Automatic annotation (TrEMBL):
Positions of the UVR domain: 213-248
Span of domain UvrC family homology region profile: 264-545
UniProt subcellular location: Cytoplasm
Pfam family of the protein (one): UvrC_RNaseH
Annotated region (Disordered), positions in chain: 317-342, 492-516
Entry superkingdom: Bacteria
Gene name, Swiss-Prot/TrEMBL: uvrC
Name of the protein this chain belongs to: UvrABC system protein C
Chain intervals with Polar residues compositional bias: 332-341, 496-506
UniProt keywords, alphabetically: Cytoplasm, DNA damage, DNA excision, DNA repair, Excision nuclease, SOS response
Naturally occurring in which organism (per UniProt): Kibdelosporangium persicum
Length: 673
């Protein structure tokens, strides 16, 4: 528990019973009166009381927020929809430092069509939305948008030049290069009238908005008519136009066969950060994609991230008039011809529904001006697209982490910071990490991963199957792994094969295989040994090293929940700053050990589940075991098979089949698998 004499929260905690048990929005302020956090709750009493629990049980960023705050205030509202709106307004007004801001880290390009001009212009654009301009996008890459526009200008030769260029060409009476090569209808010199040019632009907008079938059918009809009238040059030009349109359509493949308008949202996360990916689908085609990585403000799962994202992202979209495909005219930016705000789609697909999903759907409906559905796709094209977006989120999260890990300056800073924070004599150039994996004490395994100079050396990763005598908990398992690893090091560096920790004799190099000339597997000790866990795990590892007479290896434990660094024999953990490169490196080492351990555990568990039931069958070797599992597909199907079906497998006789059936029947009754 926090010491009441030093806990700053005591000075501003509301008196018991004064917080209403009603929905509302609350603000935390610092000593200067600035709002540092805004949140909403169904029950203000329950939510605010949670901030005044033991600080050691809070998320690191939440703990930092409540200890920075000097006061808290709240506003009671009638409905959850009002709470959503008020929370969004306050976040936008005060820009609190501890709130997650779901904003893009860059400006995405859109295609703008200036329908408010006499001769509308097509151009790639970034910036605020203006009335009378139609926007298509956003798109991830400006080059891809320009490439698509260049293809379509062959079919829709609309103006793309700036106002100054347009006026200059009008004065000199000569079109620019695009006019000469047929990619502009040259309204500047009167080759087309204003009405004819606007029809070209309208056709372009219709095609770009996804209504392609009508355009394709019209061009095909005109091509056949021209051919029938022996106008072969015109027919060839129309044929080439059709080819250009098809190439443009291939760049935007149909992902939803029902032509739906939807945003698909997915997340990838760890305890401290989350990656967000959004695919904008309009007319069944992916029209844009956005993605960014944010720090998590509180300990929350996917449902909580969805809640935060929807309220902030679509609030910003609707207020800024930033549609994915907005209509122009007399409407405000972002509104279409029906008066709906097209920045909010008709359907939002998410990986998990938040607790207040009905309220959020109602709020989105108000923002759009028509009904909005919020749901989790379960099957079909929409489920497949959700899986694609999830893969993109995971890949973006991995790339985000690798970008930092690949920075030589950041790695050097991390190693130097570890040396300073842990009081080491030298920077820990070699770091090893141990992690334990099991399910309720069964199939206990361990991993040992190696990082050198801040980068993984996968060739030196090791796996351990924990013996039955040590399966009394993670502490005992950690001790066994450390003992086995360093016992191997001592034996491999002893010239006579003894277990004495000494230097090489008779001129032989310690730790080097005399036959291959390569280092032995466990010959080199780490500068720093990291164990996944808190004080007990760190103490167990340190005690083993002391027993073995090894005193030149530093040991720490990294507690997963709060990312605390535990030193052996210390009663309090070491807290590294959230922005610390050293903490980031430790997290990456620990996560890699966790991944490697889980992979080994799954492999071992799968092997046990598919073979243990067949181990006692006389005359059934590994080859025929594998043949049986491959033939039936799973142990469950094999168990349901008859003697005749099993004996039909090549290499399996009837007597062996009867023995298999008997063994699987006993296994099912004993529930050994």
């Amino acid at each position: 528990m926090a010491d009441p004499s030093t806990d700053r929260r005591v000075s501003y905690r509301p008196a018991p019973g004064t917080i209403p048990d009603a929905p509302g929005v609350y603000k935390f302020r610092d000593s200067g009166g600035r709002v540092i956090y805004v949140g909403k709750a169904k029950s203000l009493r329950g939510r605010l009381n949670s901030y005044f629990a033991d600080v050691s049980g809070l998320h690191p960023r939440t703990a930092q927020m409540v200890t920075t705050a000097a006061s808290v205030e709240w506003t009671v509202v009638a409905t959850e929809v009002e709470a959503l709106q008020l929370e969004y307004n306050w976040i936008k007004e005060f820009d609190p430092r501890f709130n997650v801001r779901y904003r893009d880290d860059k400006s995405y390009p859109v295609l703008a069509v200036t329908l408010n001009e006499e001769f509308p212009r097509l151009h790639v654009y970034r910036g605020t939305r203006r009335k009378g301009v139609r926007y298509f996008g956003p798109y991830a890459h400006a080059w891809a948008l320009r490439e698509t526009l260049d293809v379509l200008l062959r079919v829709f030769p609309a103006r793309t030049c700036t106002r100054d260029v347009f006026r200059r060409q009008s004065r000199i009476g000569r079109p620019c290069l695009l006019g000469d090569i047929g990619k502009c209808s040259a309204p500047c010199v009167g080759r087309v009238t204003a009405d004819e040019h606007r029809r070209i632009v309208d056709d372009f907008c219709e095609f770009f908005a996804g209504r392609t079938d009508t355009m394709m059918r019209r061009l095909e009809k005109e091509m056949h008519e021209a051919s029938a009238e022996l106008e072969f040059e015109r027919a060839a030009r129309l044929r080439d136009d059709l080819g250009a349109l098809r190439r443009a359509m291939e760049k935007q493949a149909v992902v939803l066969g029902d032509g739906a308008d939807a945003d698909v949202v997915a997340f990838a996360q760890d305890d401290l950060e989350a990656a967000v990916q959004v695919f904008h689908v309009r007319g069944g085609r992916v029209r844009g994609q956005r993605g960014w990585v944010v720090e998590k403000a509180e300990e929350t799962g996917t449902a909580g991230l969805v809640d935060q994202f929807l309220s902030q992202f679509y609030g910003d979209q609707a207020s800024s008039g930033e549609p994915v495909d907005g209509d122009p005219g007399e409407n405000s930016p972002g509104q279409n011809s029906s008066g709906e705000n097209s920045a909010v789609p008709r359907e939002v697909l998410v990986p998990e529904l938040p607790d207040d999903a009905p309220a959020i759907a109602e709020w989105l409906t108000v923002l759009r001006g028509s009904r909005v559905q919020l749901r989790v796709p379960q099957r079909g094209d929409k489920r497949a697209l959700m899986e694609t977006v999830e893969r993109n989120a995971k890949e973006a999260f991995v790339q985000h982490k690798l970008k930092r890990a690949g920075d030589l300056t950041a790695r050097s800073a991390a190693l130097q910071e570890l040396q300073d924070q842990l009081g080491l004599d030298t920077a820990p150039l070699r770091i090893e990490c141990v992690d334990i994996s099991h399910i309720q004490g069964s199939d206990v395994v361990a991993s040992l991963v190696v990082f050198e100079d801040g980068l993984p050396r996968k060739a030196e990763y090791r796996r351990f199957a924990i013996r039955e005598a040590a399966t009394q908990g993670d502490v005992a398992s950690i001790a066994e792994v450390v003992r086995r690893r360093f016992h191997r090091m001592i034996s491999e560096t002893a010239p006579d094969g003894s277990t004495q920790h000494g230097s090489a004799q008779h001129g032989s190099a310690p730790g080097i295989d005399p036959e291959t000339g390569r280092p032995k597997k466990f010959a080199y000790p780490p500068n720093l040994l990291v164990v996944d866990g808190a004080g007990p795990q760190a103490n167990a590892a340190a005690d083993v090293l002391t027993e073995m007479g090894i005193g030149d290896v530093a040991v720490i434990g990294l507690a997963k929940r709060l990312e605390e660094v535990w030193l052996p024999a210390e009663s309090e953990p070491l807290i590294l700053p959230r922005t610390s490169e050293a903490l980031y490196l430790l997290q990456r080492v620990r996560d890699e050990a966790h991944r490697f351990a889980i992979a080994y555990h799954r492999q071992k568990r799968a092997k046990r589940m598919t073979t243990s039931a067949l181990d006692d069958v006389p005359g059934l070797g590994e080859t025929r075991k594998t043949a049986l599992i491959k033939h039936f597909g799973s142990l469950k199907r094999l168990r349901a098979a008859s003697v005749d079906e099993i004996s039909g497998v090549p290499g399996v006789g009837r007597r062996t089949a009867e023995a298999v059936v008997a063994a699987l029947s006993r296994d099912k009754e004993g529930n050994d698998v």
